[in-house]
Amino acid sequence: MRYKISGRQIDIGNALQTHVQTELNAVVEKYAERPTDANVVFSRSAHEYVCEATVHLSTGLNSTAKASAPEIYAAFDACCAKMEKQLRRYKRRLKDHHRERTEPVDFLGASSYVLASEDENEGAETGSTQPIIIAEMETKIPSLSVGEAVMQMELAGAPVLVFRNEAKDQLNVVYRREDGNIGWIEPQF
């Protein structure tokens, strides 16, 4: 597994890098058969250290965890514990699932845009009703079953996920509703 361990405006020593590789490797190998790479970023937020970890699995799914603590090792350990919990749930759901994925997830290319909020538009010309695009980037849309899409959304901690439904070969959306349940949008053509 490839590791990318970095710090945002803080220096990461060799001892911490070794600790991260050892601990994260033990957790990931326990619950995921074929992890491909991991990205761990440390930063400071006031008096606390923040650790953000993302593990990419060969099935195309990503697991993301974030934690903070007054000490950098404690921040990583809390993040690692969250990652372990997510991967344990993911593995349990795969066992409970009707079929196991034998091939990696297919991805479609798409464009992703970030639009300026109304507060940021106040300085723009007043006659324009068009939103201002402040970022444009390439993104990938996975080809998943609905159950796998819900798992991916929960693993990533995202409020919404756009995916291509394998059963109908159409774009679908799953999202977390205000009542805590999961919503599923399937267009009818």
The assigned structural class equals: alpha+beta
How much of the residues is beta strand, in percent? Answer: 35-45%
CATH superfamily caption of the largest domain: Ribosome hibernation promotion factor-like
Shape: globular
Q: With helices defined by DSSP (H or I, 4 residues minimum), what is the helix count?
A: 4
> What is CATH's topology name of the largest domain?
Double Stranded RNA Binding Domain
- Radius of gyration computed on alpha carbons: 19 Å
What is the helix fraction of residues, given as a range?
Answer: 25-40%
Return the CATH class of the largest domain. Answer: Alpha Beta
Integer average pLDDT: 80
- Runs in which pLDDT lies below 50 for 5 or more consecutive residues are none
- Give the N-to-C terminal Cα separation: 43 Å
Largest sheet, in brief, is:
5 strands, mixed
Family: Belongs to the HPF/YfiA ribosome-associated protein family. Long HPF subfamily.
Keywords: Cytoplasm, Translation regulation
Domain Sigma 54 modulation/S30EA ribosomal protein C-terminal: 130-183
Organism: Jhaorihella thermophila
Fill in the keyword field for this structure.
Ribosome hibernation promoting factor; Double Stranded RNA Binding Domain; 39% strand; SHC Adaptor Protein; 4 helices; globular; 5-stranded mixed sheet; 4-stranded mixed sheet; 189 residues; alpha+beta
Q: Could you please describe the fold and organization of this structure?
A:
GO terms for molecular function: ribosomal small subunit binding. Required for dimerization of active 70S ribosomes into 100S ribosomes in stationary phase; 100S ribosomes are translationally inactive and sometimes present during exponential growth. The chain has 189 residues and is an alpha+beta fold. It folds into two domains: 2-96, Double Stranded RNA Binding Domain (2-Layer Sandwich), CATH 3.30.160; 106-185, Sigma 54 modulation/S30EA ribosomal protein, C-terminal domain (SHC Adaptor Protein), CATH 3.30.505. The chain has four helices and nine strands. Helix 1 (14-31) packs parallel to helix 2.
